[in-house]
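Exercise 7. Given the encoded structure of a 170-residue chain, write a plausible sequence.
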């Protein structure tokens, strides 16, 4: 039996690091072309709260507003997602490991919502963050994923899984 291909939910840092580093718009337009293509095939998306974090007034913001499909950033306004997010919030708030500013930050950024969306929908979360069990000043997304059984990977593994190839054009 062939395994069902993973569907991916993208963290803001996937877009931000691609834009600023590995896949700058002028260096690797293929990356930015593959996002809508894989989205149209039902293989990847992100969430509304990630889109909010991309509103920085730069080329990435423009891409998100004018080029990315409207449906790329799905809504988190769903009772099932809110319930999972509430469970995650309770876990973070009850933790004696994280400092108060880490707990406050977690409540105000997209990470928890993305993890909740991913768990509720059965997706794989894509992030550049690494697990850091010693971190007290922030709640690392992979640590949250491990706690709640949410599969996660990085951009490069996602691209490999999707069979994405970037071809040099001269």
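Solution.
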């Amino acid at each position: 039996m062939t395994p069902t291909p993973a569907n991916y939910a993208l963290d803001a840092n996937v877009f931000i690091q691609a834009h600023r580093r590995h896949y700058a718009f002028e260096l690797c337009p293929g990356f930015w072309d593959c996002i809508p293509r894989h989205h149209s095939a039902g293989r990847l998306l992100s969430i509304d709260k990630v889109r909010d974090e991309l509103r920085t007034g730069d080329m990435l913001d423009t891409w998100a507003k004018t080029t990315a499909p409207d449906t790329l950033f799905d809504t988190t306004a769903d009772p099932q997602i809110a319930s999972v997010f509430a469970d995650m919030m309770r876990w973070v708030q009850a933790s004696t490991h994280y400092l108060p500013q880490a707990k406050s930050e977690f409540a105000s950024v997209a990470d928890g919502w993305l993890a909740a969306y991913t768990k509720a929908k059965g997706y794989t979360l894509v992030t550049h963050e690494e697990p850091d069990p010693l971190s007290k000043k922030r709640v690392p997304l992979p640590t949250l994923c491990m706690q709640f059984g949410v599969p996660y990977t990085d951009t490069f593994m996602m691209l490999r899984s999707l069979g994405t190839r970037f071809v040099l054009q001269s």
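Remark. Strands lie at 8-10, 44-47, 73-74, 124-126, 152-153. Students should compare their own answers with the one above.
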